[in-house]
Every structure is written in C-alpha cells, then in structure tokens.
Protein 1
Amino acid sequence: MSKTLYDKLWENHVVHVEADGTALLYIDRHLVHEVTSPQAFEGLKLAGRKPWRVSSIVATADHNTPTDHWEKGIQDPVSRQQVETLDANIHEVGALAYFPFKDKRQGIVHVIGPEQGATLPGMTVVCGDSHTSTHGAFACLAHGIGTSEVEHVLATQCLLQKKSKAMLIKIEGKVGAGVTAKDIVLALIGKIGTAGGTGYAIEFGGPAIRALSMEGRMTVCNMAIEAGARVGFVAVDETTIEYLKGRTFAPKAADWEKATAYWRTLVSDADAPFDAVVELDASEIAPQVTWGTSPEMVASIEGNVPAPEDFSDPVKREGVARALEYMGLVPHTPINQIMIDKVFIGSCTNSRIEDLRAAAAVAKGRHVAANVKLALVVPGSGLVKHQAEAEGLDKIFLAAGFEWRQPGCSMCLAMNDDRLLPGERCASTSNRNFEGRQGNGGRTHLLSPAMAVAAAIAGHFSDVRELTS
Amino acid sequence: MEKFTTYEGLVVPLDRANVDTDAIIPKQFLKSIKRSGFGPNAFDEWRYLDHGEPGMDNANRIKNPDFILNQQRYQGASILLVRSNFGCGSSREHAPWALQDFGFRAILGESFADIFFNNCFKNGLLPIVLPKAEIDALFLLTKSTPGFRITVDLAAQVVSRPDGHKIPFVVDAFRKECLLNGWDDIDLTLRQAEKIRAFEAQRRIEQPWLFA
Ligand code: SF4
C-alpha cells in the first residue's frame, strides 16, 4: 500500500501500541532548554530514575538570556537561577552537546539543532517547546511537548502519542519577488485558521515549498503549530541533503552514503492517501502583515484592517472587536498607514543567515525612520552572528540605525529585558501576536524580515516590493 | 497523579475563543523552577488591574472586578467552561499547573489545542470536548442560573446537567484508564523497558549515525 511520509516516519518509531492505538514512539533527539526542563529533571531525581540515553540530548539556554551586556552576566536573579539550574542539571546527567550562555555556538534551540546537524531526516525530535515543529523541515517527526513529557522522554526515551490524521498542504506555483516563506505560511494560516491543522500532521509540499531553502522550510514548519498542528514537515530532497553535508553531528564517510540512501526514501508515495488536502497558489500571495491578536488575523500589505461586522460568527465577531481594541486599530485603516514604534528581527521563525541577508539587502543604504524608537536585530545563534559579521551584515544594520545584539529568544517572548511597553506597536518577525506576548500591553504585527525592514525605514508598514523593484 | 473518577462542581464560563497559554499563565511566571504555586497567577493579566511579577503578594493586589473569575457568584468554581481552541500557543505545562492549582478539575469546551490537551491529562485535569450546541447551551445555563453545577462521570463518559440532561463525551481508552487509576505514565512505559531496549538495539544496527 502506498504511504504518506507521515506513515513512514511514524512506523519507523513505533515500539509498542496499546489496544486503543496509543503508541510508544522511540525518540532519537531530545532538545532541552532552561524554561521547561527544571521540573522534569527534578521529577526524575525525586523518583530515583536515571536518564535513558543522554547522548540523545542537545541543550542550550535561550529564552531567558540577555542579548546585550554579556559581560554583566544575567542580571535578573530569577532568570539567572533558571539558567544555572540547567547548567547544573546537564553537568550532572550529561548530554551529546551543551551550548551554555555565552558559548559561541549558543542560540535559540530550534536554530542550533539544524545548524549543528543534530537534526537529521527520519528522526523523532522532541523539545519542551511548541515550535519544535521547525525541525520538520528535515523530514523529522518533531513534537513540542510539555514538561511531564520531557520527564517521560528523559526516563524512557519514548513519547506516548496517538497517530494524527494526515494533511497535505500544497503550495502551487511560484512566489513573486519580495514574497517569502513567512508570507506563504501567514497567508496559509489566514486561510485555514489557527485551529485548521488541529488533530493533523501537516506535510508541506508543492513547487513553492520545493523551491524554498532549508531556512525557508524551517520558517514554514515553525509556524505549523500556529495553524494548530503539533507536527509539520517537508519531504527530503537534494536541498535537504546539501544543507546537512559536513555539519558537526551529521553522519560521515560510509554512514553518510547509507544515511542519504535512506533519507531519499522519506517522501510520500505518489498516490498516498491524505485525510485532507489544502491547496494555495503562491503567485497570488502578497507580503503579509497581521493586524490582530492571533496569527490568523492577517491581511496583505495592500489590504485594510477589517471591521467586526465583516464576520458572521458571533464569537468571531466578538474576538475581532476585542483584538482591534487591544491593538488600538480602527476598522478599514489601510495596513500601510499603521505607524510603528519598534522593530524586532529575530526568533526561531526568522533569525537564520538567510533572513538576516534578506533584511540587510533592504536596509543597505537606508535609515530607520525617526518615529521608530528601537529596531533590534537578534541573530538566532552565535554561529549565525559570526557568519553575518563575516559578510559585513552587522555594519549594514548598524549604519541603518538598527541595534545588533547577541543571540537568543529576546523580544519574541520578552522573558529577558527586550520587550514592548504598554501600547507600543512592533513590526516583528516572530511567530505569535498574542496579547502581551512581547511585553504587557504591547502590540505585535507579524511579518517577514524584509517587510520588517521596510516598516522600520518608512516608520509604518510598507510594501517592500516598492523599495526593491 | 490524583485520580479522577466522578466529579461535581460549580461551573464558570470563560466566553472567548483562542485563549492562549500566555493568557492562562503569563511568561514572567515561567522563570520558576517549581511545579506548584501558579494558581494565584492564573489569568494574571485579566484577573488583576496591575502588572504581575513573580514574588508579589497576590493577596494584596487589586482585582479586576469585570473578570469573570473574580465575580462573587463564581467563587469556588472548579469546572471551567470555554469556547474553541482553548490553550493554544506555547507548550508550557505551567498552564495546566496554574489551572489545577487554582482549583479546576475539568474543562469543557468546543475544542482544545493539542499540546495543552495532552498536558492536562498528565496533571489529573480532564479536558472534555463537546459539540458546539451543547457548549452554547451550557453557556446560557451557566450565565442564567446562579450556582450552576454539573457532574462529570469519567467512567461512564457523561456530563450531567442538574435538569437531568446527559451529554456523552469521548475520551481515549488509555488516557481514561490512567486517569481513573491515577497511574503514572513513566511507570507504565517502563513496563515495556525490554521492548524499548530491543527496539533501540535494532535501530543502532540499521541507523548507526543516530547514536553517534
Ligand atoms: S524564539 Fe520565540 S518561539 Fe522560538 S523558541 Fe524562543 S521564545 Fe519560543
């Protein structure tokens, strides 16, 4: 029988199945960060258990770490304690690799896994973080898990999971100039909604996905969770294999040959059955900007802020009214007339080298508008930062009036000092525009790195295609 | 884990869709390295008029009188009634920890986000998916009937209203067993330790690069 990629990944990891279909899935890679792991390590210790296979663990500190004045260490004592707890836990149990605060390879957990070749096709990857779906770009079954599950994986190397339904999202055609992976995924969420993928494992396919770099595919898979799907993935092709060649933890020599032969089988069979298929035409997608407090509240840069009356469902209407109030927006305002206060380029969605190149290309020779109080560029990892500096991108950003920071999650969730003040409006390349996400009372608009720079320069949202064409 | 069998309690309606985990427990409280004590900060931004930070004396903060959980008639509520996509956003288990610490034992809604749904079961908190029409009716009843209580019978898989109306619900057999018995997932899984070891050994042969 022909199989979907999901079937293949699933079947390759099933250790045991309960009568109701609940399966024990073997876990190949366990990514660990400071926020969701302390209670798991503590639970393990209290129960007198040992980790099953520490060589599956790759750990880093990213959520709490500051992005400037590293010489001063972590000022906030509560954050510092959490990071030090991770240090102590990894020191005690061990790991394949640990990139602590200030290590030159430290960074956002979803950036460093692939960068190190620690994320490989055909793996099951888990992390106590919902954006673990990012790793699906490598044809992995990558699940975001809760802390009890972190403990469960530490103790048993397995995850209890029921098989989801399979959804194929086909992005046909070709994107126009200035339209990126971020625009594709935002347009998609606008179409299917934030619960559109709930209960599904999503395979992203079609020519527009195939044409993306690994960085772009990671951006798309990163936001699978914003469409409600716990896992999202892309089949293996030469782009995947090319990216992995020579990475630190990628297989070498004879293993490389054997591995790549297997990886090439990680595609859905031609006539594999899907439970749902969604198609989108890439050529119709314009640069996207969110206007509300959920990623599905999104419009094209050519569009307007909607009015609650545009929606027939009363719960939705109420939600839109509340979102507009929180966002301080008036119905029918053209998106490109909304003024901004801050800009954030970073997060596990858009902080890789390709994102920074795209942003720098727009920033070059231009300057951040006077009304923009702060424009931050936060690379996803120390290695991304190093690469960007080698290419002179930091100079371009600094000359244009951006700040160039140390790697970490930063203003994506504002657990460190990088945050919005109440009422401030931010053009952000991150993945969540929920109330208070970037700071209490802050207003987040999600967009691509190139669009974030265009907004920084204009002082309001603006169509990057007009700057670059 | 605390067992869940039959539970009767006061219902509080939280009438909005897409309630995310950051609304349930804001990020600043995630810096704690403990599992308990999150209840006073559940729904912090909606519940209090000031901005909450860890270490504050929550008893002395000014509550938002408009927020549903603060209303007198819902004090002591232990069953939360919600709309769709409840618990979306981050994977933080601090969200079910906060709800449970607050005193909730069951959540009834149209739909839940996947990871949150899963996390609830690990903490003796039962999320129940019901058809939209039933949820709509429960919202009406809860709002119009002071002291509205319901009973959740996990073994029989029914929610009973005081007027005798019974609503069946679906739950995975395995999760149900675990909750009814208060079983610990890890203990259960370790009963399969032999199988896991054998699977791992085979994998080492077939895909040795995974074990580098
Ligand atoms: S960058 Fe943002 S979304 Fe990504 S892991 Fe960090 S906090 Fe989570």
Protein 2
Amino acid sequence: MIVDRRPLTFWEKLYLPAIVGGLKVTLKHAYSTLIQRKVVTMEYPEQKWTLPENYRGAPYLVKDQEGSTKCVSCQLCEFVCPPKAIRITPPGASGQKADRANAEKMPKEFEINMLRCIYCGFCQEVCPEEAIFLLKDYSITSTSREELVYNKEKLLALGGEHGGIQKWKHKLEEAKAQENFPVKV
Amino acid sequence: MSTTATTETKPAAPAIEKIKVKVDGREIEVPKLMPDWTGKLTPTTMIQACELAKTDVPHYCYHPKLPIAGNCRMCLVEFGTPALGPDRKPVLNPDGTAKIAKSPRPAIACATPISPGMEIYNNTPTVKQMREGVLEFLLINHPLDCPICDQAGECKLQEYSVDYGQSASRFAEAKVHKPKAVDLGPRIMLDDERCILCTRCVRFTRDVAGDDKLGIVNRGSYNTIAAYPGTQFDNNYTLNTVDICPVGALTSKDFRFQMRVWFLKETKSLCNSCGTGCNVLVSSREEKMYRYTPRENDAVNGPWMCDAGRLNYKWVGRADRLKDVLMRGAGQGGLVKTTWLTAINDISDKLKRAPAGSVAIVASARQTNEELYLLAKLKANLGALSDSVEHTGEADRLLVSADKNPNTNGARLNGICYTEIGSNLPQIAQGIQSGKIKTLIVFGEDVTTQGIGADLLAKLDTLIVSDILPNATTQLAHYVLPGAAHVEKRGSFTNTKGRVQKFMKAVEAPGDARAEWEFLHDLVHNVTGKNGYVTIEGLFNQMAAEVPGFAGLSWAGLGDTGVTVTI
Ligand code: SF4
Ligand code: SF4
Ligand code: SF4
Ligand code: SF4
Ligand code: FES
C-alpha cells in the first residue's frame, strides 16, 4: 500500500514555529526541575520502580508447599519456547525418582538460557504442573555468557515456593483409601 | 542369468467381485472380500470400506493385523441398507434410486461386513454423540497422567479427546485406582490405571506371538491387565505391545522417560540385526537415537519386529567408536592420525602397484549392496580373492532369521562371497601363509576370529581395515578407515528372501568417520581410473545396470518397502 505524503501547510513550512514548540517543552521541564525542584529521574539501582502486578520477568522453577520439585519433566515448555531458551534433560528409566511420592519423574537437568529468553510467558502458560513462573526479575547480569544459563538448582532456588493443589499427592491419598488396590509408591 | 524384479511376493490372486457402497454420501467401489489379519479373504468390513474411502473411523481395539474383538465401541457408525418390499424387490424412491432403510441401531464398523448398496454414515450428530459418550466412559477412571506419561503426543486417547472429548468431567466420585508402574517383564512396564482394556496386547501375544501370557483379571471397573501369575512377560516380541497399546498403559523400559515423542525425528530405515531386514523408523533428536519402531511392510515384517533387533542400536553411540583415520608410521611405528586424502591416496598407490593375485578382500555382509558392488569392482581390477564372514544364530517361527548378516544375499549377488559364505577364507589364510597374498583388505569383520590370526596378519605388507568399532584386526592394521553405521548413511540391503530395501540416514557419523561407499568410490576411481557415481542414487542405478542380480531395479523404484529379486 502506498500512502501519499500530505503536503506541508504554509505554517509548517515556516519551520520556526516547530522549533519554538520544542523549546517550550524543554523550558517547562527546566522550570519544574530547576525552579520547582521536582525529580524526574530515579537513582537506579539503589531505587527501583514498583512493578505492575502482571509484569513478566525471568522464568524460574518453583517448589510446592512441602519443598518438592513441581516440574515433572513433561518438556512442554521446552517445546513451546519460541527462542528455544529451555533445555531439559529427562531422567530416563533408571534416573533419579521424583522427590515426592507418586509423581514418578522430575527433570535430571533443567536449563534456561536467560540471554535467549524473551519473557513471553509461554512456558508458564503451557505448564500443566504450575511449576514454572515468570517472576519479577528483570535485571539479569553477569560477566560471562555461561553464567546466564541457569541450571535446575539455581532456578529452583530463585523460584522459591508456590503452593497450589498437589494433584499427585491427592491421587495417592485417594488410591490409598481404596482397599482393593493398594498402590505401591 | 535373468532375473525379473517384482513388487509382488505372491502370484496375483483371482479378481474379486466389487460392490458399491456409499460412505458419507460418496459412492465408492470396494472389493467384496478383503484380507483379514491372517491374510485370509473375508467379507469386507465397514471400517475397511471407510479406509478405502479415505474416511477415518476412530477406533481403539481394532487393528488390521489382529483378530477383531469389537470391545471398545469407539468405531460406532450409523448405516442403512436398500429397503426390500414384501416381494423381496428393492423399494425405489420416486426418482428411481433405491430407497435406503436406515438401521435404527448403530453398528461397530470394525466387525460389521458391508453389503451391496449399503450407506455408511460416519459424520452424523448421532455418531458424534455416541463417540462422545464412549469417550466419556473411557475417561471415567482414567488418571490423565499425560505430563508423566510416555505415550503423550502419540496417544489415541488424547487425539480422540481433542475430537470428541469434554473439557470437564461429570464424574464426581473418586476414580478407581489400579496398580501403577507394574514390572510386567524385562522390557515392559505397565500402568494399569491408563489401560482402556482394548485387549490388543492380549490378542497380540496370544495370536501373533504365540505366548499366551497376558489376560484381564478382576471384574467391572476393577478389570486389570496382568501377566499369568508367577511368570514374566518376556518373549522376544513384547515391545510390539507397546506400539499397539493405544494409550500409555504399556511402555518400553528402554524408552521410559528418555525423551518426549514430539521432539523425535523419524527416519525410514531397516533393522540390521538379522537377515529378515524388518522395516523400522529410527527416532532421533540432535544426532542421538532414542528408539526403533517397526514400520509396516507386509512383504517383510508386517507391522512387527523382534525385541532383540529393536534394542540393538546403542552400540552406534559407543564412546570407543573409531573416529579417526589412522595410518601406521614408517618402520615399526604405531598408528597415527592422518587425513582421508593422505590415506586414500597412499592406499590407491599401493593397490595400483600390487601384482595381480597378491590382494585379498574380506568384506562384511553387514555392508550395503552399493559398498559390496564397489568392493567387487576393486576385486575384479586387482584379481583378488574375496569372501565374507558368516554370522549365525537362532531363528524363530515369526521373524527372526538364523542369518545374522543383514545383507548376505547382497554379498552373493555382487560376487563377494559364494553360496557357502566363508568358503574362501581358508584359501585366503593359506595365501597369506605361503606369502602369495601380500595385501589384505578387511571391511567390518574381525578376521582374527576367522582363522586369519595375528601371526598371519603380521606377514602381510599391507593390512587395510575399515570398521566401526575397534577390534583385534583394527589394532594390527596399517590403515584404519573409520566407517559409518547403517543409520549414519544411505544404502540398501538384500534380505534372505531377496527383497532389496533401502534405508535413509538418521544421524551423523562421529568424528572423521565416513560412509564406506563414499571413500570406496574414491578408491575405486583411483585404482581403476574410471569415474563412478558420487550419489547413492547414481551408484545404485549403476549397480542395477551392471550386476545381473539387480537388473531392472532403480533407487527410486525401491520405494519405501523394497522390491524382491530372484536369488
Ligand atoms: S518466557 Fe518465553 S522465552 Fe522465556 S523461557 Fe519461557 S517460553 Fe521461553
Ligand atoms: S516446567 Fe512445567 S511445562 Fe516445563 S517440563 Fe516442567 S512440568 Fe513440564
Ligand atoms: S494414556 Fe494418553 S491420555 Fe492417558 S495419561 Fe497417557 S498420554 Fe495421557
Ligand atoms: S494395556 Fe494397552 S493394549 Fe493392553 S488392553 Fe490395555 S490399553 Fe489395550
Ligand atoms: S474398534 Fe470397533 S469396537 Fe473397538
């Protein structure tokens, strides 16, 4: 589509009125800071702004209220992540069992490359276990690229605890209540 | 010698009468009789007719290669047949078409035969409702373990739930819980909660594998799949039940929690563990193989394969793979790393200077037709003796062949070995002993276990060895040329019945390792001075033109399922 440029009016062609308009803004700010002593900047990083409730910062892994890993290594987040920032190593058959009963598995390794992450929040949205959340961290710095690949341990430490329904625990309790089929854990 | 290439394995059957039916309003002609799971001709069923009409009928218990059970009810369809008047004559509509009497009851498409003029309705609101109902019942006690279930991504329950499922369950009671992670046998893990009781696994092991070990115990909602008490489900075909289980109840211990299926790239390939040459799909992600699954080919393996072959892939990723081109330094030097160019040029020079009859070739019947063809060219040029090595094991009544080489017939057709494989080996040993044979070319075999021991090998001027894994022969070699496993290259095998089948490349070879046909092509070019084809297609077609056994074949013509030649 071609949009024709509107020809300038005589007033616009004069050029000076626009300069004056710009100067007016500058002067207004000069007045409010110099004369009225109003602060328009912030002393970052000592001071930080309050983030809105729905702010999407870096994605971290969370633990449940009993301190167990919630992620079950379903790899949906790895699949959905647009810039392929997530890399999960599944446990395999003989690998480490999940650290809570009945969940059967958890990732052997879970890495997020914070340099790749675009904070889209897809991983949080797709996760069937409510195990990954975009928290409020936005200032992610380091002296090397390698350090910015966060591993499972680091992600879990940063993510902290996030309660919610414990479905695997519920299933187990429900099963245990049924005498006919004692479910081995 | 003349051979005719055919795609048929049996002579053409007598023509079968065709009948007309309508599927969702579209009229098609279908044969009146079609092969059932054993291949016997039986009246065509609705599900077969719908398949011919390219209409999907959702189903769980039906499997084209298993006896029909008709227990899941997922395949319910509505149908009608031409109405008959009291005079047993068809009633006609005013426009002259036959009046269809719609059956008041639905029928299961998997077990109901078609009749002339029948109309099948696969898409009506009633059909949709019935399927929703069936699915709701199946999900009543289903644990919805998808995040921890290996089947997720290739699960029929998931797929049909997307098509016919409800977003919320109306079942307010507690679900019946059943045993989870049951160790059914050495290779199989069972999760009883996920089982939808389609009995595919029971029918497979009873009727196909002939090892009647699985059954359903308990009643009603407590129905549970179990192995016969006190026994292990451990025949050589157990992993096929994992493939046919429509849900994640039966899972492979080998593949358990290894990788989610949606990441896997599937490559059409062959199993090379025996002479049967079962068609497989190699699943890999980022150059790592995760599993083999059988690929249907009715002329070879049907939809099945044996467990031993299926699990025989791990050696490909072994850490001690030969990755470097090695060359023995001057004098008594050890093996040092070199480049392909140096090694191939060096070998070519030596072979060109070798007097006729001073070279012998021991090839492997695990190599591809194309590679054996190139070796045969070398053999002809050098007037060399050649043979291959026999590997045998136990055969069974289903698929496993006693011949553990995947390409013995390819070696025979290319003239590398003779009807009795290995008959030339003593002669080669003798030649070395007498000093007549000065150069030995070995591909993919450890000749020290075949009567050509280290003492004999020490007498050679030049020992050229290409292999994939190190062995006693590669250690004594003057030149070690690292080769590629069959999943790392393209090529074709000729199975015990003479079926020529091709396979594709799934993963990259490690380090400097290269497909044998690539460097053999260079070698043949240097030694004979004649150029050949540098693509596998060209090479195969050249072989088909020159080797009478493969006459009439072409790479493209092999298709996915191969072509049978006379052997
Ligand atoms: S927020 Fe988006 S980019 Fe970042 S890890 Fe999650 S899915 Fe990937
Ligand atoms: S974080 Fe959630 S989506 Fe990602 S692997 Fe773990 S359970 Fe699955
Ligand atoms: S069997 Fe299918 S539906 Fe059931 S848990 Fe496994 S993937 Fe999900
Ligand atoms: S284990 Fe699988 S194949 Fe066997 S009855 Fe259950 S759902 Fe069917
Ligand atoms: S597929 Fe027909 S009843 Fe199961």
